Amino acid sequence: MSIQRFGKWDFRAVDSESAARALARLKEQGAPAEPERAAVVVLLREAPLRVFLLRHAAKEPFGLPAIGRADLPGATARERWAHLDVDASFERSGTGPRGSLYGFPGGRHKPDDPDVAMTGVRAVEEETGAMVALQRAWARWVTPEYEPVRFDTWIYVATLAEGFQPRIRVREPEYATWIGPEQAVCQYGGQMSMPEATVLAELSRYSTVGEVFAAAEQREMAPILPRVSLREGEARLVLPGEEDYPAGALTRALPRQRSAFDHCTSVRTTSKPCLR
């Protein structure tokens, strides 16, 4: 995850005063909140390569889940960002339910979901009325520890079953469109969560769905937990493996997963092709 800038957007910049408040909030909380599992699905089609982008009716602080802008999903955007006391400059750091203005179908893992991969399949059907044909895990982002509501979010890339066209089925999104990944991040990157914007920047490297799926097969699904780094008065978000990232932070922060295959599950039914 080396992408820090794309076009005019700086994915890592953080207001220093907001950073100080967020770190103080974490200290007051004591132990970070345990993250809930969630899934986000980036629907793909070609040619050329396009993603299905949703625009939410209202921008709310902290969404990406409003990740006000930057991260991962759960249910509606309002639910995702129910804790609206988060600083706007951090909205882009989340992963899971959020208040970002633009994003993708997704939601919280529910008890009836066999695994988090099927959470994404269910969310797509509920939000768009469409059925997933093929799905691959692309990334796993975890909401920063300073957030009172946190998500361990698997981001998937997927294609739709033949004959299905996505449409808005829930009241909250006000607009949806197929758009190129590069155009989406260049035009709307500042109104998305950092994880979603980062995924679009990564997808902009590819020309076909086949190329995206081939790349997904080679990706490591290690969790990405943004942390705040303060150096010489400048605050930035840092990711695992980068300079200034605390040693052992991920080990301390994340609960043990139930299954190593939660993100990559094969399911055969009479109505759905094999998912992975």
From TrEMBL:
InterPro entries per UniProt: NUDIX_hydrolase-like_dom_sf, NUDIX_hydrolase_dom, NUDT19
Span of the signal peptide: none
Molecular function, one GO term: hydrolase activity, acting on acid anhydrides, in phosphorus-containing anhydrides
Domain Nudix hydrolase, first and last residues per copy: 34-205
Transmembrane regions listed in the UniProt entry: none
UniProtKB keywords: Hydrolase, Magnesium, Manganese, Metal-binding
Cofactor dependency: Mn(2+); Mg(2+)
The protein's name: Nudix hydrolase domain-containing protein
Organism of origin: Glycomyces artemisiae
